Amino acid sequence: MRAPLIVAVAAAAVLAVALAGAPTGSAMVDSGPPVIPGTTSVLFVANNWDGTADIVDPQSFQKLGRFNTVPDLQERLAEINSDPVRMGYYIGIRALVGEGHDQYADDMFSSHDGRFVYISRPSLADVVGIDLKTNAIVWRFPMEGQRADHMAISPDGRRLLISDSTANKVHELDSATGKKVGEFASGDSPHENNYSGDGKLIYHASIGLVYTPADQPVTDSSKGERYFQIVEAGTNKILKRYDIGKIMADQGLGQFNGAVRPMAISPDEKKVFMQLSFLHGFIEFDLATEKVTRIAELPVSDAAKAIPREQYLLDSAHHGLAINPEGTKLCAAGTMSDYAAIVSTKTFEHVIATKGEKPYWSTNSADGKYCFISFSGSDEVAVVDYASEKEIARIPVGDHPQRMRMGIVRSELIGRLAEGARVRGPLRLHVARARRSGGALDLRLRVTSRATGKLEVAYRAAGRTARFRLAIPSGPASVQRVIIQRLTLPAAMRSAHTGTLTVSYAGSADVAPESVRLAVAPGKARLRATRARLRSGRIELDGTIASRARGSVSARLAYLGDGSRVRTVAFTARIRDGRWRVRGAVPSQARGGGQLTLVYAGDRARGLRGEQSTRRIGPDARAARPE
């Protein structure tokens, strides 16, 4: 027997044994980790454009809290600004995948003790572990490629899987440390990951180049390699790799895009229900016969019928599929048709259970009674009761909810997390002066009048770091706080004429946390905005800077979202010959204006200091008013 045939037979035997012994446990229906003493079952909602996550009671449907998924945003942006390759992908993710927005919170799972959450952040190309008590990052794993995507957590909570979109692989991490312990290959744009109920198998799919405009069947081959894979957990050996599009064509079922989007696996793990690119519905795939046994065609709205394939959201006709614990009903998100349906797995008969703008994920409550559907276009989560097949509640959440996962948190943290859901305004941090003078660092800082407490200042030069704490002075409620300080530096740092300044604020009940990182150097960057206005739902910024400046200028607009939450939208402008420019769409709620922050991080190698400014910008304003 030839070696390849021996390998194939051995792999088939391993797979057959694994499938035959697959349990009917709840791990396959997204029930989350078991609730242990001192913990509370919750629904985590990742607000992708917001960079936040909402925590929801899965029984009362009340919001229990919120936390920041990008507490290190300024540090990450500084890294991106200094790397032309990363900057190119960062802008590309915003334009091609994020619909003009940065993606800061995609997928997330909680640790099995309820103390930590693990979050993939596509635009920042990483996965982080965050301590729910402190909102501090305890570990970070950067992608080998340029974008992070869907994750999975093993039934015992010890391993995390993360799809690395541009490296065409899936990383296996130790969830406690964030250290890589393995990987397996995928097709183009690895996407969905699911563990089997006993944790011995991984069901994985790659989706190809969904962001390209070549969406007609005749150009299907340009979408890249798309596979559904079954992988042996632990060894990461690929046991089976299926081209679903080819299988359907060979069966005479027609020409279908083979990209498997969200999938739902039956409790006995004998069948996989798969959403495919451009299919308004899903297919049923039999793991024993390796054939597509049925195709469910669900309704297409009149609006969706009028939309060409090239305008589908990342090729997603439908995106979101969950199955109840009994395996009798599916909860399908009809993305382009703005509905969610409950579908019988026996007959494929359906009921439109709820409607909303751009549904993009479905998941179950831990007890399996409810299906949660994220309406990413209207920033809501709908709750559908499986028994009645009707919507019973709707929950307002943050900007662009996508992935939702059941998890647990320590019960004593609920109150602390609730504080994170309070309305907190921006710090309005303005570094008006940061320069070396003799053996000291001269600072002039401004913050909002609502800020209290202290600012943390770190200055790094000559391989050393000096840290200071500056008290924010009190004063009239309507007057900004000004901090003027001359900080004496250690002797070992006094001969260095350049350094890096980081100013951070941990946040308070009334003011959101913020930090800025700038180079300190002799030369002035002379960052200026010559135009700053909002017009017809777009922001227009033009400016100048020193002719020898390189890199980019970052712009962040903070605005009041739904009347109760401050949100931000960020842009990056490449510097070219002393000029920079931003043109981009803003969310509808930002069209009334807000606070604009401009930052040039500086360039120590060229002797240019970092500069930063804040100002108000209003709708259709010809010029912005500095604050």
Structure description:
The chain folds into two domains: 3-420, Methylamine Dehydrogenase, Chain H, CATH 2.130.10.10; 430-626, no CATH class. It is built from six helices and 43 strands. By secondary structure, it is mainly beta. The relative contact order is 0.10.
List keywords for this structure.
2 domains, mainly beta, 627 residues, four-stranded antiparallel β-sheet, Methylamine Dehydrogenase, Chain H, disordered C terminus, disordered N terminus, single chain
Helix and strand topology:
Elements (H helix, E strand, L loop, with lengths): L2 H18 L18 E9 L4 E5 L6 E6 L4 H9 L2 H14 L10 E3 L5 E6 L4 E6 L5 E6 L5 E6 L5 E6 L4 E6 L5 E6 L4 E6 L5 E6 L21 E5 L4 E6 L1 H7 L9 E6 L5 E6 L4 E6 L4 E7 L4 H4 L15 E3 L5 E6 L4 E6 L5 E6 L3 E6 L5 E6 L4 E6 L4 E7 L4 E10 L3 H7 L9 E8 L2 E8 L6 E8 L2 E8 L9 E8 L10 E7 L8 E7 L7 E8 L2 E7 L7 E9 L5 E9 L4 E7 L8 E7 L10 E7 L7 E2 L1
Antiparallel strand pairs: 1-2, 1-28, 2-3, 4-5, 5-6, 6-7, 8-9, 9-10, 10-11, 12-13, 13-14, 14-15, 16-17, 17-18, 18-19, 20-21, 21-22, 22-23, 24-25, 25-26, 26-27, 29-30, 30-33, 31-32, 31-34, 34-35, 36-37, 37-40, 38-39, 38-41, 41-42, 42-43
